[in-house]
Model the fold of this input.
Amino acid sequence: MSEANEAYSLFDDVCMAVDSAAAHMDIHPGLLEQIKACNAIFKFSFPIRNDDGTYQVLKGYRIQHSHHKLPVKGGIRYSSYVNEEEVKGLAALMTYKCALVNIPFGGAKGGVSIDPTKYNVSQLERITRRYTSELIKKNFIGPAIDVPAPDYGTGAREMSWIVDTFEAFNPNVINAKGCVTGKPLSQHGIDGRTEATGMGVFFGIREAVSVKEDMDALGLTTGLKGKKVIVQGLGNVGYHSAKYLSEAGALITGVAEYNGGIYDEDGIDVEALKAYQLENKGFKGYTKGEFIADAKSLLTYPCDILVPAALENQITGENASEIKAKIIGEAANGPVTQEAEKILAEKQVMIIPDMYLNAGGVTVSYFEWLKNLSRVSFGKLEKRYDMKKYDALLDSIENATGDRFTQGQRDIIVKGASERDLVVSGLEETMVTAYHEMNKTRKEKNIQSLRTAGFILALERIAVSYMDLGIFP
Ligand code: NAD
Done:
């Protein structure tokens, strides 16, 4: 989220990244122009009545960047910094992110220019419902058209208000629940959405460190075991990334928060630190490890992998040359500035780009949308059937061999897949496949940057889609 700065355009920045990827491709300039352009921009003003009888006029946006796949998908942001250039840029990034991880959506983004902390729940509900009704009036929302999700300043609560408003206006739309994702489970959300982004970060980093040739080039061994990791931000994404990385054997040696960090060479107990943070609103007083008041300095401490999972613009021209990590996993959106990226490239640091690494959220949102279209939770139909089938199979093996499975072995083999099991399986498949495709592209094009390789792959897929569609009329 960038502070209001008239001169800066996130959209122009994204277009520049696309141009540098296109320089490695043979792509028709007209097609490139169409890919880069925002297909539909809806900006509007609407009034709300305050509790004291006064009025305010608010600015809302919904921008659909690319219609090469429908519906389009992207979050809704409530922030006073929301402006047209930022929403355009974020919508474009959604297009490239979805294409890179092969999720069949075009990109979109929306927002309302408000500081949500300045409004009470009743006002936020009225703002959200009015915003939704504006989208409905212009056909900018719907399970086949445009499917929003949470972003800064919005969450499951706002998504519930959105789906309820959409259903009120569209009582005959049987797939109406699929008009928005990130809903609570009670409103047909999906099991596993909360941890999806952090789990995706874990899968992505695990794949990166599994490639021997790449680890040799960095002077690292393969595998996560014993790798020292520093994480910035112990919120949703940072906590889940740290949790799964440490469960896989990595040592979380540092965690940085806005109000102080913890450093412990022997490895931090992520669950204990999170519990302490929730109770004490920070790490001050945590007895294991060293409290670091200037938490940002932790970014430059020695480690193998640095995972910025808080905010944009954290690794900049000022601190990039001090970074000791060999791998930076961009869990947050835009944590490394372009200036820093150049410095890090000279130092041969591997950057796993945000458009790939934090795609777990949109991936599981896709599964939620699929669940809503089929109106049944994943695993419900086949779980018991599979369990009986595997039970019978094990019985047959026991009868044929005379050997007996232990109860533990039976439980693992016979267990039918729950919704969460299937979500995790689909997420893992998506992240694993996309990483190796991106890395293969990097090697084939003989370039250093995974980010550029990610853009190339995304552009190739979008280009094929547009070419196959043709031009109407
Ligand atoms: P969050 O609000 O749950 O967590 C952010 C954490 O960062 C908080 O604990 C906060 O205290 C901490 N933080 C804030 N300022 C900091 C600072 N200066 N230094 C250190 N820590 C600081 O948010 P989140 O959902 O975890 O999102 C984190 C990042 O991941 C954002 O860039 C977001 O856009 C991106 N992201 C999130 C998702 C998702 O599904 N939640 C998906 C894609 C990308």
